[in-house]
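Lab notebook, bench 4. The sequencing result for the construct came back, and we need a structural model before the next group meeting so we can plan mutations. Quick request posted to the team channel:

Model the 3D structure of this chain.
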Amino acid sequence: MNSKSKNSALYVTNAAVIAALYVVLTWISSLFGMSSGVIQFRLSEVLVILPYFTSAAIPGLSVGCLIANILFGTGPWDVVLGTAATVIGAFGTYFLRKWKWLSPVTPILANTFIIPLVLFLDPPTLEWAYETLQGLGLNIHPIFFMAATVFIGEFVMCGVGGMLLLFAIEKRGLVLDRFSKKKVKEPEKPVELPEE
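Done. Here's the predicted structure in token form:
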């Protein structure tokens, strides 16, 4: 196997592992009713920080989100538009990787602007939003309410959770992309205690 084949195989393997992780974490979120709907805290959204480390995360997140939305989403609009939001967010993270603190911004913004449209097109979700707004005594359009709730979920999962994952990966010195030009420190060697 030549070097190019090894690189391609590693790239596809990395993307496949990321896709599988995205689906499993979305499934866990769905067990708690938090993977779709007006209020969503998808554990899988912490993974949108991975394009900071490797471009293999872009297809991995895209395919993972597509599969997760087919299995656990709110319908066909979620499959199309929800996946598009993840693709935009993944590319944004990749292109903003020079500025670490901006890495989660595009996934947060893409989801905040796109997912409320998905929810608005889902009649049961829209009905729930209207009822919730009436119960709270708020006189605002449901799409703004949905944008606010999606933003909160994305800020927590991408902004806080994603950045915690980024710092954990950096601290451990994990190498996610062996072929990148980015220098990642090697893990520290354990301290050996003198024998007595």
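The domain at 3-172 is CATH 1.10.1760 (Arp2/3 complex 21 kDa subunit ARPC3).
Will bring this to the meeting.
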